[in-house]
Amino acid sequence: MTGDLVVLIEEKIKLDWSPEQVSGWLDLDNNIGISHERIYQHVWTNKVQGGTLYQHLRQGNKKRKKKYGSKDKRGQIRNRISIDERPEIVTEKTRIGDWEIDTVIGKNHQGALVTITERKSKFTLIKKVNSKHAGVVTEATITLLSPYLDKTLTIAADNGKEFAGHEEIAKKLDAVVYFAHPYSSWERGLNENTNGLIRQYFTKGSSFESITDEQVDKVMERLNHRPRKTLNYKTPYEMFFSKTECKAA
Using an 8 Å Cβ cutoff, are 10 and 43 in contact? Predict the structure, then answer.
């Protein structure tokens, strides 16, 4: 733990990287072998000394119990396509272009975030919207994915009425929108996990009315440039832009 290494480690911790992510990145990109346990020790020593590094560590939130067998009372979305019809290749995560979409709601249902995550790379797009009305969410979805038309093949959504504009989304993006089964969040598990990471910055119960686009962009940048263990400590950005995978003609 040389002085230069401490500076480097603390720099990454302050970007909200976990000790495990820092350890993996140091090994992969810098050929430096240091365990995540040793990095944790440094963080807690820093806390004892009055430091604030520990505040950047993600805290485990209480998980709500899943509802099983509950009747979906939100009504059916017209012309929805079941996730059962989605190609098997999407499950395999062998290509770039398959996304999961959801919304994160602010305090008193005022304001929301549209969140979209690519399944293979974990590359994440986020946009603040004033409401979760279908028209607003439809426009935000098209805006977020339009720059990546060649990397947009399928989108998986839940049965919320905010996704009632799925046919317009599919047409504008030349993609297919599939709907998960009611109360089956595990069918969009990546997006659920990503929303948990986003909640580190915009905590549950907090107001979204004062959130700026700049703040949202900063969170998006941090998530996409943070190495992930499941990506062999590559970042979502690196994976997503590693090569061009265009749609078949």
Answer: no
Please, which residues have CB within 8 angstroms of residue 70's CB and are 6 or more apart in sequence? 182, 183
Report angle CA 231, 236, 239 to the nearest 5 degrees. 75
Could you give the count of Cα atoms lying within 13 Å of 161 in the half-sphere of its Cβ?
7
Q: How far apart are CA 34 and CA 41, in angstroms?
A: 12
Asked if residue 204 lies in contact with residue 114, where contact means CB atoms within 8 angstroms, the answer is no
CA angle, 247 as apex, 185 and 148 as ends, to 5°? 65
* Structure confidence at residue 39 (pLDDT): 87
Phi then psi for residue 28, to 5 deg, are: -75, -45
33 within 8 A of 27, measured Cβ to Cβ:
yes
Give the model's pLDDT for residue 106: 86
Angle at 19 between CA 17 and CA 20, to 5 degrees: 100
Low-confidence ranges of the chain (pLDDT < 50): 60-74, 244-249
Indicate the burial class of 71 (C-beta count within 10 angstroms; 0-12, 13-18, 19 or more): exposed
Q: How far apart are CA 131 and CA 162, in angstroms?
A: 9
pLDDT one-digit tens code per residue, 79-92: 999 998 999 999 99
Bridge partner list, 176: 154
Asked if 28 contacts 227 with a C-beta cutoff of 8 angstroms, the reply is yes
pLDDT in tens, 212-245: 999 999 999 999 999 998 899 999 999 999 864 4
- Residues 124 and 236: their CA atoms lie apart, in Å, by 8
Q: Which two tokens stand for residue 172?
A: 């504008």
